Amino acid sequence: MSDELTQLRSILAEARDLQAAFAVLDWDEQTYMPPRGGEARGDQKATLSRIAHQRFTSPRVGELLSLLESRDDLGELDRALVAVTRRDWDREVKVPDALVEAMARQASRSYRAWIQARDANDYRIFEPEFAATLALEREWTQAVGYAEHPYDAFLAGAEPGMSTRRLTELFGQLRRGLVPMVHAIAERQDRVDTAFLKGQFDLGRQWELCMQVARVVGFDFDRGRQDRSVHPFTTSFSRDDVRITTRLDPEDVTAGLFASIHEAGHGLYEQGIPAELGRSPLGEGASGGMHESQSRLWENLVGRSRPFWTFFLPRLQALFPQFQGTGVEAMYRAVNRSVPSFVRMHADEVTYNLHIMLRVDLELRLITGKLATADLRDAWNERFAADFGITPPDDLHGVLQDIHWTSGLGVFPSYTLGNVIAAQLMAAARREIPDLDRHIERGELGSLLHWLRAHVHRFGRSRTPSEILVAATGRDLDAEPYLAYIAAKFGEIYGLG
Amino acid sequence: MSDELTQLRSILAEARDLQAAFAVLDWDEQTYMPPRGGEARGDQKATLSRIAHQRFTSPRVGELLSLLESRDDLGELDRALVAVTRRDWDREVKVPDALVEAMARQASRSYRAWIQARDANDYRIFEPEFAATLALEREWTQAVGYAEHPYDAFLAGAEPGMSTRRLTELFGQLRRGLVPMVHAIAERQDRVDTAFLKGQFDLGRQWELCMQVARVVGFDFDRGRQDRSVHPFTTSFSRDDVRITTRLDPEDVTAGLFASIHEAGHGLYEQGIPAELGRSPLGEGASGGMHESQSRLWENLVGRSRPFWTFFLPRLQALFPQFQGTGVEAMYRAVNRSVPSFVRMHADEVTYNLHIMLRVDLELRLITGKLATADLRDAWNERFAADFGITPPDDLHGVLQDIHWTSGLGVFPSYTLGNVIAAQLMAAARREIPDLDRHIERGELGSLLHWLRAHVHRFGRSRTPSEILVAATGRDLDAEPYLAYIAAKFGEIYGLG
Fold this sequence. Notes:
The structure is a homodimer of 497-residue chains. Chain A has helices at 3-31, 38-56, 59-69, 76-92, 97-120, 123-144, 150-158, 164-186, 203-217, 253-271, 288-302, 306-319, 328-334, 352-367, 376-388, 413-432, 436-441, 446-455, 465-473, 480-494; strands at residues 224-228, 234-238, 241-246. Chain A is mainly alpha-helical and 497 residues long. Chain A folds into 2 domains: 3-145, no CATH class; 164-494, Neurolysin, domain 3. The first copy, chain A, has a 3-stranded mixed sheet with strand order 1-3-2, sandwiched between helices. The N and C termini of chain A lie far apart (62 Å). At the A-B interface, helix 1, helix 2 and strand 1 of A face helix 1, helix 2 and strand 1 of B.
């Protein structure tokens, strides 16, 4: 390895360690930190962010990149390292250290305010801190710059190759496909019965169920763990230490179950990134959308499928005997009930993207200053009524439901991109594993995981989302497989067309 | 506040944040980290250590200290900050960054090897890593320098004002007082019955007991938490986020109980350090010995006292009905049984310091090269047989029992100093709170905590251990109160002279 490469790797490894330390502090904050520990934690995270940013954006990194870019003897992986680092460095170097620190400190403040606001079920408690977050986000978009729209600045980081313009087109296409289906299903609500899902569910047994489902999909507990948090999330300190969390609802056994499959899907991606990409900018998912494709694929295309419930229903019944009289078909239909509902995280696959579009449209107005944080609750509720025909009864079921705005904007597009990519990947996996449904019915999920490891996980960030998609599926980002999947699945369940 | 002071405080706060982040990573490693997370964690901790050291030892700190030392307008606390920072800086600046990083990395390796060695009950698995740790410790003592003995280098950091020579004298004095008592008690083993303490104890109820006892002594769970770990410890990320751990033994209910009181004692000290000392070198305990005085005071002078058991026995009985026939006197005598035993952590107050002296004597030989790590197990067992008349049956009951050597030498003296200081403080507290035993009998431990807050905790590291002791008790370090306490307590229990 050349001396310049060694030097670059060493600085990047150090920056990576600091980011991992930040992630540990954040994980702890959301899982085990005592109530009053937040203020000092905010200081600690702010300091770590600033120093990680300082190290990563040091002029020496720029020099090393230039030297390495002029060389023609680098291997494929080293070239990818230089290219990805260049992309990150060019963006990050434009952000002042003080802004990075201020953003981290503000994120801690906003998180604490969000927790308090949720306890009081009152957006107004969160609003001043969110206003401060938004002001910093605006400053950040101006610092890093953008081609057409300030929102492009977020997309350039999370979704390489994506623009606000292209995202808006994709949203339009999805809307045209999905809204008529939402209306058709609304007239056939009697087709799916979910009454038997209601009840009281012991939290200890729910926890066992969540541990079981994470194991079933292949999450490796020697290299990770699961805990509980207010908002489920996944974080990774290395491929050998990946943390997922879930949230249990005493009255809804499926909430924790699907949260666990979802986060385990993220976790599998992180655990599948090869060791040689670790401690570098290549050692993470290719994009937010690619990451969500993994969680949504396991949650929905596997976890809400007939074959999965053929396998998994007896396990649910063993822990919760009240389901002993329930059949696979009834369970399959119930967990796929499509109905306008308030909470994104529990939304079905047909309405889910409408939740995302609502958020992204509000974000576009917030970042351009067309919408003030003081008016956000009203804007949310109005838009919600227009899209879903129902008005949130309170802030917990409305504007306060997601943790994401505590740390900024620009994360939500990844969910819809993830849905679209998941359908593309699953269609390709089905072509290559013809008896995949038989495997799933027997609880043998290893063949699917193996396919994802080979076509997605093993590249980390060394290939772009587009390169990964084209190699794995033969096509770049394409909404058709997703729309076809939704039409077929829900067409059958609701007896449409 | 002067500009120089602001600058100094800002650098120190940042170094502190990095140390706190290190402590979070360490806490996580010992409590929740999955089995294979250790290697990356070692990298992360090594990077944090090195950067914290770099920041703290920057030439700018030295310049600011010199500027501030020449000023005569500083308040008392600011003068203390400058003096303490100078002491630390002068020592730390002599240690190369690379050595700091290597020591942190080695500590992680040694910790993992120690865990494996414990699983296999075989010191030989730990030995090569301990040899590497020892080599780095030697290098460190040479780097920081010392007056007479390499071991002085450790004491200068942990125990300001203490030297190897003085420590050896103190050990001699204690040995002269304690050994005859050990022999006299050995002949009267039938005086104390502990048979009724044997049994099987549900871990869930033990956990409840450990939570209760921490609450009883005043540990604030809004500003801290308790977890389980292989070796109980206390760590602090700020006065508002203090973590204690305990270890439960299914066959010994007192093991976890006393571990929890001990660690809660440390925790109370950390929670009692004023906010204005936080995020600076003043925001911690005055010395290792002063810290241990707090844990040992609560564990022994309170937790192993008659008045405490008058109050606490009904609580134990409520959780463990098998003790319903046990009286306070029987319990008091049982938890004070003095007998040569293998494990320091469970040793009684008479033999405890012999465990420490054994370790410190071995450390003195290790650091000077007179003893090789390859010969440590034999040396331990020989010395143990000589001091206690029994030979450890295996390494778990011998050389592998303590976690301390995974991160280096020089920590054990603090335990004996803590015992001595605890007796001095308790004697002084008794003089000023005449009905202290009545308070304790009623479970009102607040008066004692208040006294400790006022005379010890509130100073953090802004006064030396000696200054704190003289102000609180009227005397500098003095073994007499400790020896008098032991003679009176155990003389009564065993009917001596």
